[in-house]
Amino acid sequence: MRTARAVWSNRGFGAHLVEAGLDNALLRTDYVTDWFKSDPARLVGTGFTTTDDLTVDHVVPKELGGIDSKFNMHLMLRSDNSRFGMYYTPEKVEYVGALNAKVAQRVVQLARRQGLDRYDESDFDPLEVQCPAPSRKRPLDADLEAESDPESEHKRGVMEPMMANAQMQGDEHDEDEKVSQEVSVARVEMPHSAAVLFKRMSDPCEQFGVSQDRSSAMAAKPMRELKQFCEEIGVPPPAYGYNQPLPDEYVIIQAPKGLRGKLPSYLKMICVKVLSYLVLSTYERTRMFPFMGTRANSGKWMFLMQKRDLPVLRLFASKESEEALKREQKQTPTLAIWERMQSMLADATFPVEPVGGSPVINVAALSHLLKEPFFNVLLGMRGLSMAKAETFDATRTALLTALNEAIQAVRRAHGDARVVGADGDGEA
Amino acid sequence: METPESLEQMATARPSRSLWRQMNATFAVARLEAAPLTGAPVVDVDALSEEEERTYFDVLLAMQKFAKMVKQRASTPNDTLVQHTRP
Fold first, then answer.
1. Does the N terminus or the C terminus of chain B have fewer Cβ atoms within 10 A?
2. Complex ipTM value
3. Contacts with A403 from chain B: Cβ below 8 Å
4. Could you read off the pLDDT of A405-428 as tens digits, one per residue?
5. Does the CB of B22 have a partner CB in chain A at under 8 Å?
6. DSSP for B34-56?
7. How close A53 gets to chain B, by Cα (Å)?
């Protein structure tokens, strides 16, 4: 007989509820907790022996769209429940087990498609999610293998968001093939437009782009740079020892495995937007830290951020539009915008641009004869940094010219009072 | 989400080259022409050599210092360098 418990491992207790006739679609967690507490014998097979401090938690938190379904519930200690809080993190996925997490994700997707008022999970089969058709002959083996093989678990964890979608197409056969197919599946599933990306990033089930590789090889570089950076700006550096894995409170956002190319530009864009938001709202710059990957990820941009900010990423993705991103990319830097924004920052006595990190220049304090040369220096610097080989000489000349003009303007301003009239509008 | 502490921290921050490098490089990779909010041209700091990076940042600091100096002079009578359009 095929039983859900065979693959619904550890503390998944749906089968218990089915047997007890409590398998109606929507159940409150406190009701389920009481059901267990009323007869501790019901804990047999769940891994718990006592109901002390026992709670039932939503795998996908309700704050993130989780529902009151038995497929989205998990037994855990109160302390663990509090620790995870309203977050759905890679750590939580690891805690509940990748297969249970997958079932919870899928049932939340089902509820979203159907609508809560019409929600019906009577046709939902966790076995279909955990072990697609061809491998269903030996679900227990597959489950045990997956749980006992850290390498396999690791590979699947990294690809979790991708795999969740891939499985909807039912194109996997067994665990080994699943791993071997990750690359091709990821290529198929990688969103090719910002709109799709936003939709998937805003989905709490997807964790799009969040790496579960917490190895020292992945963590060392960004953590080292972050420490150095914190020391430079006088912020207490994070606790991180040499050659340690990534600390629990951090995650890295990267392109999924199989997409070793650069992060899509719109993913970077949205990260920049989130960065702006985080920096502006709290000024804790360490909360999202860009860095360049090493070794296999050499030359690829990644972002180190704190787990607690993942909901912010989702919030942004859910509100972002492709048009807004395009507008921002095409924005031309102008003297007027620069002056207005820098003046606001200067008036607020900010010595540093909150997002860009540049020293704030109080443009409004300068005469109009100085503003433009200063702005031209910035344009020249940008031109040179973005110049290609064939235009390098020309852009370097342009920058040197701009610098010379700025120096001359400063000298004139210093040395000759007639440069600017008393009302500030005089001519040289 | 704002706090008095974060505002105070923002107002007392010191411009650093590493911050400038990190943020501007991110903007450049995201292909932004202008920095969000501040409107400044985005400089791809990562494309610069170490020496260029240091020099350019020093230029920015110098520009900031000069603007501050000019503003301080504005408080003295008959100053001729300042545009008297702001209180």
1. C
2. 0.84
3. 59
4. 999 988 887 764 433 333 333 332
5. yes
6. B-TTT-PBPP-GGGS-HHHHHHH
7. 33
